[in-house]
């Protein structure tokens, strides 16, 4: 088996995401981030637009037969509903964190096949950390989950829960971990630590075995979750809806996600059971 870090398709995707990161960081250093408001009142910056341009061009050159759905290039459902495969892209996940200049933003690229995310690549421009996961063989890349930082590559996997149990929480969206869920978790794990972060960094930290759980009860879109879901699943974890089913993509006219849970196989059933019984689901 060819080492994934030397596989030409992986190297091409890595170059695309590195080029997008360079475009983002060039703007990040400027005083004016070019912030505007979109029609849904969410912010967009010059960096979102610049990174999107780089990624769209790169993916279209790499796989001209696979269409692209991006946060900055939304395609009507009537046009995309028959797409069997597609790239799902968030050129700058965590725009609010970018504007705050706290460094907690990422670039997300996912390949979706028949609704399932089978490949994900996420890069953190401010730290230089990258994550890559494949859940089924694609272009001779066999299933794997890796992290890279510079020239260092390592396999990653979700961890068995330990003390303290680490729950990732959102930096800018939604409430902290519900108190009754914390109490439920403390029936087994005496210490539960909350760690706030922005963007898909939360899911990647779980995939690499640094954290154990993320419960999201605020709004997200398909491009926010597809890449991290592929990485999490490749690393042995789950990104699932409260009914226990994994997310599927490009199946509905709406691109908005419902609530979801990210965890390893030991913690996920505990959170699912809590969710079904709890009144605190807002």
TrEMBL record:
Signal peptide residue numbers: none
Q: Which reaction does it catalyse?
A: adenosine 3',5'-bisphosphate + H2O = AMP + phosphate
> How would you describe this protein's topology in the membrane?
Peripheral membrane protein
Corresponding gene?
Answer: cysQ
- Enzyme nomenclature, EC number: 3.1.3.7
Which species is this UniProt entry from? Rhodanobacter aciditrophus
Question: What is the first-listed, main subcellular location in coarse terms?
Answer: membrane
InterPro entries membership:
CysQ, CysQ/Inositol_MonoPase, Inositol_monoP_metal-BS, Inositol_monophosphatase-like
Localisation: Cell inner membrane
The UniProt entry, under HAMAP family, shows: CysQ
Q: Where does Mg(2+) 1 bind?
A: 71, 90, 92
Which annotated residues bind substrate?
A: 71, 92-95, 224
Keyword Metal-binding on entry: yes
Q: What does this protein do?
A: Converts adenosine-3',5'-bisphosphate (PAP) to AMP.
**High-level lineage:** Bacteria, Pseudomonadati, Pseudomonadota, Gammaproteobacteria, Lysobacterales
Query: Which enzyme type, at the first EC level?
Result: hydrolase
The entry's protein name is 3'(2'),5'-bisphosphate nucleotidase CysQ
- Is Kinase included in the keywords of this UniProt record? no
The residues that the entry says bind Mg(2+) 2 are 90, 93, 224
Query: Which cofactors are required for activity?
Result: Mg(2+)
Output one GO MF annotation: 3'(2'),5'-bisphosphate nucleotidase activity
The UniProt similarity line reads:
Belongs to the inositol monophosphatase superfamily. CysQ family.
Q: Which keywords annotate this record?
A: Cell inner membrane, Cell membrane, Hydrolase, Magnesium, Membrane, Metal-binding
């Amino acid at each position: 088996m060819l080492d994934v870090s030397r596989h030409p398709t992986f190297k091409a995707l890595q170059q695309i995401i590195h080029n997008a990161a360079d475009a983002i960081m060039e703007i990040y250093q400027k005083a004016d981030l070019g912030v505007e408001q979109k029609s849904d009142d969410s912010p967009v910056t010059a960096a979102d637009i610049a990174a999107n341009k780089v990624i769209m061009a790169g993916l279209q050159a790499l796989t001209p037969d696979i269409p692209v759905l991006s946060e900055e290039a939304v395609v009507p459902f009537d046009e995309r509903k028959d797409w069997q495969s597609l790239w799902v892209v968030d050129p700058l996940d965590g725009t609010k964190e970018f504007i705050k200049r706290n460094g907690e933003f990422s670039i997300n690229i996912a390949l979706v096949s028949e609704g399932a995310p089978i490949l994900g690549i996420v890069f953190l421009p401010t730290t230089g950390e990258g994550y890559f996961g494949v859940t089924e063989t694609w272009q001779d890349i066999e299933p794997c989950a890796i992290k890279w930082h510079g020239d260092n590559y390592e396999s990653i996997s979700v961890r068995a829960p330990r003390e303290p149990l680490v729950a990732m929480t959102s930096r800018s969206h939604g409430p902290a971990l519900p108190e009754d869920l914390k109490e439920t978790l403390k029936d087994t794990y005496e210490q539960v630590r909350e760690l706030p972060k922005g963007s898909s960094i939360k899911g990647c930290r779980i995939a690499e075995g640094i954290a154990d759980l993320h419960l999201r009860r605020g709004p997200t879109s398909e491009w926010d979750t597809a890449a991290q879901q592929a990485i999490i699943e490749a690393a042995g974890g789950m990104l699932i809806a409260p009914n226990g089913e994994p997310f599927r993509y490009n199946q509905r006219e709406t691109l908005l996600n419902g609530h979801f849970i990210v965890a390893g196989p030991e913690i996920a059933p505990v959170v699912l059971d809590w969710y079904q019984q709890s009144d605190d689901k807002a």
